Amino acid sequence: MKQNIILRKNSKNVNATIQLTGSKSECNRALVIEALSEGRVKVTNVSDAADAVLLAGILRSELSGVGGQNSEPTTQNSQLTTVNIGPAGTAMRFLTAYYAISGEEVILTGSERMKQRPIGILVDALCALGANIDYEEQDGYPPLNIKGGFEQKTDLISIQGNISSQYITALLLIAARLPNGLKLQIEGELTSRPYVEMTLSMLQQAGIQHQWEDNIISIAPQEFAETSIWVEPDWSAASYWYAIAALSDEAELFLPGLTSYSLQGDSVIGEIMANFGITSQFKDGGVYLKKEPKPIVRKVFDMIKCPDLAQTVVVVCAALGHEATFTGLETLKIKETDRIAALQNELGKMGVKLIEKGLVYKLDCREKFIPQKMKIATYEDHRMAMAFAPLALIIPELEVEEAQVVEKSYPAFWTDLEKAGFEVEAP
Predict the structure, then answer these.
(1) Which of 269, 164, 275, 240 is nearest to 410 (CA)?
(2) Residues contributing to the annotated binding site for phosphoenolpyruvate
(3) What sections of 72-224 are H helices per DSSP?
(4) Are strands 216-219 and 182-187 parallel, antiparallel or unpaired?
(5) Considering only Cβ atoms within 10 Å of each terminal Cβ, which end of the chain, N or C, has fewer?
(6) Is the pLDDT score of 77 beyond 80?
(7) For residue 281, what is the enclosing H or E element?
(8) What are the residue ranges spanned by the domains of the chain?
(9) Where does phosphoenolpyruvate bind (predicted)?
């Protein structure tokens, strides 16, 4: 059900302890590992993000041999199952690889937006390996008819390094289950390296060894260990609390469970927000955030390794009138929405422009103003809702459209804002 909310914050001081859900990025990888290991690997602290809950339901039903709530027989063939992943992009990519080697035939589909998100690079790579996959509608896009009968044709696949890291991760996750293993050759610069390193580290936790020499990642066929993987709290979710701290007058926040040695690339938010006077102190089994007065010096932010932080950092800069330049935003146009256009539209409501010049984006805050009321469209994008929510610290009445979109990655977000002293109510 679509629901708007209004946010208010009478005081610009924030003091709270916020227990974040498990990392969506880690959890999705761990769930695929659990399924590929046929249950030898157990996942704990599963994220309550809608995407992770959906993926867990599908994969754990595969383990038990019972169809999940998102699976149903097609009308054409009672033996052929349709798996609908809705708007979950990670699930689409990971399940494409999982089902490609599973031996069963499924139709893998999603929301209308998902049918506009390209997947041809991954499908081409899987078919080159030996998968049998057809497009049900438009070439290069879901839905997919993933057929059984995988017979490995080669163990060497070449893939561009500047594509979505989820394509690379999907291939690495299934590598140990391939009869001849996988040698993945990365062409050009690997833009989302932290996400690939996360995948390899989690595979290593599960007993899967790899070699990375020059631009080739090699994984031999091998068995998963009997072990467990604990999912760390979500640094992407933590980024919104860093933003809240940055826009506050005074902030003291404690986020339990987060570590300074995280696998998550988005843990770099601590380093980024240090530019805005936010200190991160790791103790007592978590991280303490504190606001300290500091002039903003940094002018250029390269988001290539942490694209999911881009909206958060752009909005903070805009709110503070800091005319920063951003690079590494290439993937934002093919996310849940065109995030560049969405940012331009919503920042325009407070007189800020995000100017695109090739692959470089610059904030123009010369006409910035603080409205008494502002309504934010979310474009069916969870990160738009959460990136703009901290503006309630400087805008007296902030209305967020379709507030339920946060369920995709951080269902408790609005409740947690209330714990931090925000008023959250229906319009």
Answers:
(1) 240
(2) 24, 89, 117, 166, 339, 383, 408
(3) 89-100, 120-129, 165-175, 193-205
(4) antiparallel
(5) N
(6) no
(7) strand 278-283
(8) 5-20+233-425, 24-230
(9) 24, 89, 117, 166, 339, 383, 408
The amino acid sitting at 146 is I
Q: 5-20+233-425: which CATH topology?
A: UDP-n-acetylglucosamine1-carboxyvinyl-transferase; Chain (3.65.10)
The 10s digit of each residue's pLDDT in 330-344 is 877 767 778 989 999
- Residue 355 three-state SS: strand
Strands of the sheet containing 182-187, edge to edge, are 156-160, 182-187, 216-219, 211-213
Distance between terminal CA atoms of the chain? 15
Residue 261, number of CB atoms within 10 A of its CB? 7
Query: From CA 67, how far away is CA 296, in angstroms rounded?
Result: 53
> In CATH, what number does 24-230 get?
3.65.10.10
- Looking at the predicted structure, is the pLDDT value of residue 72 above 70? no
Binding residues for 3-phosphoshikimate: 24-25, 29, 164-166, 192, 308, 335
> Which CA distances in Å does 357 have to 15, 163, 302, 304?
40, 21, 15, 16
Catalytic residues: 308
